[in-house]
Amino acid sequence: MGVFEHFNYWVAVFLMMTGFYTVIARTNMVKKLIGLGMFQTAVFLLYISMGKIRGATAPYLVDGVPFSENTYTNPLTSVLILTAIVVSIATTAVGLAIVVRIREAYGTVEEDKTIAMDMADERAEDAMPPTIREAKRRLGWLPRSGAPRVTPPEPARQPAREAAPRPPAPKRGPMSRRKSAPRKGKGRP
After folding, report:
1. What is the C-alpha R_g of the chain?
2. Tell me: the pLDDT tens digits for 33-48?
3. CB-based contact 114:106 (threshold 8 Å)
4. Least C-beta-crowded within 10 Å: which of 66, 70, 111, 115?
């Protein structure tokens, strides 16, 4: 058994470690997605390599050849990897969409810079006067804290007045319609 006899496994391990290192070490979010794709591809290659048997054929029966004479490759690994590829593409697409939104919001795709901007925003929110901070919390612009919520005082209640009786609604026949202003649109001025 030589080293090249298990070449697929060596390539899978190399791709897996390269992808893992890229996800961990890089701060650019697009490069992280590329590393994640490399890692997923390595897993696909590993499973396909494990499912392949040398000298085996696809699992179909040939007329005149007994079942026990052929060695068949299990198709389950190929089917699972086909599904995993679709999931991988969807994951990458969602990740790229999130990176685009982060780029629009922060102006960068570098993880360190976005974290620094978030920390600066939190420090600025903590430095706000309490009245502005509480107003923003009530409007839903800031998350609620454990502090009790300040509610404005209720206006003084006035005694209820008796409502005047309403006049009865005019009776309409089946053919009468309420007239309204003409609508604007196709063919109308």
Report:
1. 34
2. 999 999 999 999 999 8
3. yes
4. 66
